[in-house]
Amino acid sequence: MSVAGENIGLTIADATVLPVPVGRISVAKYHEMIRQGILTANDRMELLDGILVSKMTIKPPHRLATELTREALDRILPEGWHVKSQVPLTLATSEPEPDGMVVRGKPRDYGDRHPSPQEVALVVEVADSTLLADRALKKALYAQAGIPTYWIVNLIDRQVEVYQEPTGEAEPPTYASRRDCGPADEIPVVIEGHEVGRVSGADLLP
Questions:
Q1: Each residue's pLDDT tens digit, 169-190
Q2: What distance in Å separates the CA atoms of residue 81 and residue 119, rounded to the nearest whole number?
Q3: Is 104 in the same domain as 178?
């Protein structure tokens, strides 16, 4: 199932797309291009719904919010879960690299692969110039994959958008619940249906 185009109100053309002769590609083909050195870390791209999309340059506020989010989550996560930042998450037709995610197990469990949706409790994107894509394309991808909770640390409006209750394969894929949290609000961190702690909006926003 594709999540691009009219289904989410945002076409892939709204992002910065690197022209590639193969057009829409599979996750397996993407991995093979990396293995062969056709794509390298210097290319700064991610696979979104089968399309290679260039990643935006990270500005200092974005970097700081990513670091603050990781620190805040690290303080409250229970045994058996950890935080990853800006590393790939393997979905059916995509491999985004979210700014943060809460992942089951330990780092060594992922020595030869990236996490799958079933191993992720929370995904976080820090948004400045990417806010439109994070609210539309990224949200649809994560909802379709069944990621239970999705946060957008919105640097433009200085709020954290908390999305829950993914609709999965519904058309269009989305989250049924949204709550906007300001710097003074507390945000529950929920893993497998249980609240494991809280962070404040101020903990995440620069």
A1: 888 999 999 999 999 999 999 9
A2: 9
A3: yes
- What's the residue count for the chain? 206
62-96 pLDDT, tens digit each: 999 999 999 999 999 999 999 999 999 999 999 99
Single-letter amino acid, residue 75: R
Is it true that the peptide bond before 172 is cis, omega within 30 degrees of 0? yes
My answer on whether 39 and 80 are in the same domain is no
Residue 194: domain span: 60-204
DSSP strand pairing (194-200 vs 100-104): unpaired
Q: Which residues contact 114 (CB under 8 A, 6 or more apart)?
A: 87, 88, 89, 90, 95
Label residue 20 exposed, middle or buried (CB < 10 Å: 0-12, 13-18, 19+): middle
Is 126 part of a structural domain of the chain? yes
5/178 Cα distance (integer angstroms): 22
pTM: 0.87
Q: How many domains does the chain have?
A: 2
Look up residue 199 and give its two tokens.
Answer: 């962070």
Which tokens belong to 100? 């943060």
Residue 79: count other Cβ atoms within 10 Å of its Cβ.
6
